[in-house]
Design a protein that fits this description.
509 residues, alpha/beta, Cobalt-precorrin-4 Transmethylase, domain 1, Methyltransferase, Cobalt-precorrin-4 Transmethylase, Domain 2, Rossmann fold
């Protein structure tokens, strides 16, 4: 397998849906790819591991709707590899469990294309596990059968021996079988499976929107219709389903079933969403503002060159630290220029950023993570006669500089970045229809929210969503726009916001 003129194809299983179930090897190879060919059920968050500029080719297939036929997908892989590129073929679940990976590999073999296989976690095992069902269990069954549900079980030439599997295996798992659910259950009973056999239908398994339905074999189809289940879903048949009541964990998490709109800027939205999803929430990222560099850094650059003239430098956010560091680099200077200058910040994340980015600690970090808290700290330390530089966003409250000036300080305020609306259109009004919570981490996010959603749309939402605020300043802006604040963080950080949300529901509200 070593033609130097050809690229290589990596056939990678993306797992059952949860983006964190991607293997470490799969993640590494995505970061090295020249082109990625991916399927319909690959979680979009997995695609975030693909470097910017790498070509992405969608070849998703749904029942009766194919972007490309399998033969054309096979030849596409050949063509891409023969052009000398490193190709990742990304498939949902495991490529060799009803993923047609074998067909693709055999085509590569026939063309002498180098390839590697990276197995993925199959939904046949992972989805039942997320529903609290072990597919084997001592004392119940030690046999497992995995089948495609797309084949009509009532056709004469079925490739599945229904008579043998109906009574010969303990646990049966049917993938992609929702459209044939009624025929599958009827055929199993026809060939001897008891009508009272426990069954579980699991939709969108391993994802925040997971739903599961437990019923007997003879009524699972009727109940699925009543509960409006749809594809993608898998069916588990067998006595192991009876263990779900005791083991069920994923659907019992504190925020499970709660749909949460995350309005945080893109840099933080993934982190906040991940923390909320770890508690069971289903997050929809809709950043209302974006963090952008300034058009002109001459004022900040001049201050950096004269930094030794200041007694204090105050950073109000992690973004301020980030852009300050980028200007140091541009000016070919380093942290040594801050020798003799004291540092202050607002909040533990800004302090952490200073340590990680500049390798230095702070002299003041207030107990209350806002401008008022820092003012209180300076009242104890003393600011009279001190020359202070505040590095912040272009758009910010002036409580801190005005308060320091009243104390007798010589204060200079310089922007290191700006916050701008993301440019979303008001067409998103319908997105509020089934939202349970909206999170706000700044006044700018609240203002951006009302640029996207009209006041009328907020009032007419199907049900009133909970308003979650990172702190009193943001809460005040929420109220100015007519929002009732239901949850307010005591610690004004993303972690504090998550703690406040979980605390609210832990109390049974």
């Amino acid at each position: 397998m070593g033609n130097k003129n050809k690229g290589r194809v990596y056939l990678i299983g993306a797992g059952p849906g949860d983006p964190e179930l991607l293997t470490l090897k799969g993640k590494r190879l995505l970061g090295q790819a020249d082109v990625v060919v991916y399927d319909r059920l690959v979680n979009p968050r997995i695609l975030e591991h693909i470097p910017a500029g790498v070509e992405r080719i969608y070849v998703g297939k749904a029942s009766s709707r194919h972007t490309l036929s399998q033969d054309k997908i096979n030849m596409l892989l050949v063509k891409l590899a023969e052009s000398g590129r490193e190709v990742v073929r990304l498939k949902g679940g495991d490529p060799f469990v009803f993923g047609r990976g074998g067909e693709e590999v055999l085509t590569l073999v026939s063309r002498k294309i180098p390839f590697e296989i990276v197995p993925g976690i199959t939904s046949a095992i992972a989805v039942p596990a997320y529903a609290g069902i072990p597919v084997t269990q001592r004392g119940l069954t030690s046999s497992l059968g995995i089948f495609t549900g797309q084949e009509d079980p009532e056709k004469e030439d079925s490739s599945i021996d229904w008579q043998k599997i109906s009574t010969g295996l303990g646990t049966l798992v049917f993938l992609m079988g929702f459209e044939n659910l009624e025929k599958i259950t009827r055929t199993l009973m026809k060939f001897g499976r008891k009508p009272n056999t426990p069954c579980c239908l699991i939709q969108w398994g391993t994802l925040p929107g997971q739903r599961s339905l437990v019923a007997r074999l003879d009524d699972i189809f009727a109940k699925a219709q009543k509960e409006k289940f749809s594809a993608p879903a898998i069916l588990v048949v067998g006595d192991v389903v009876s263990l779900k009541k005791k083991i069920d964990w994923f659907e019992k998490r504190l925020l499970f079933g709660k749909k949460i709109l995350v309005t945080v800027p893109s840099d933080d939205s993934a982190r906040l969403s991940r923390m909320l999803e770890d508690q069971g929430g289903e997050c929809r990222d809709l950043p209302m503002i974006a963090i952008k560099p300034l058009d002109d850094y001459s004022a900040l650059d001049k201050a950096i060159k004269q930094i030794s003239e200041f007694d204090w430098v105050i950073f109000t956010s992690r973004n301020g630290v980030k852009f300050f560091k980028s200007r140091l680099d541009r000016l070919k200077k380093d942290v040594r220029i801050l020798k003799g200058v004291k540092l202050a910040c607002i909040g533990p994340k800004t302090e952490e950023s200073l340590k990680d980015t500049l390798g230095i600690g702070v002299d003041i970090r207030p107990e209350e993570f806002r401008q008022e808290g820092l003012l209180q700290a300076f009242k104890k330390t003393g600011a009279e006669g001190k020359k202070i530089l505040i590095v912040r966003a272009m758009e910010a409250r002036d409580v801190l500089p005005e308060g320091l000036r009243k104390m007798g300080a010589d204060v200079r305020v310089l922007a290191a970045y700006r916050t701008v609306p993301t440019g979303r259109k008001p067409e998103g009004d319908n997105a509020l229809r089934d939202i349970d919570m909206v999170t706000f981490t700044s006044s700018s996010c609240v203002e951006g929210f009302f640029r996207v959603f009209s006041t009328k749309a907020v009032r007419q939402a199907k049900r009133r969503f909970l308003t979650c605020s990172i702190g009193p300043v943001t809460s005040e802006t929420c109220r100015k726009f007519g929002l009732k604040v239901d949850i307010e963080a005591k610690d004004y950080t993303l972690e504090g916001l998550v703690k406040a949300v979980t605390g609210y529901f832990r109390k049974g509200k």
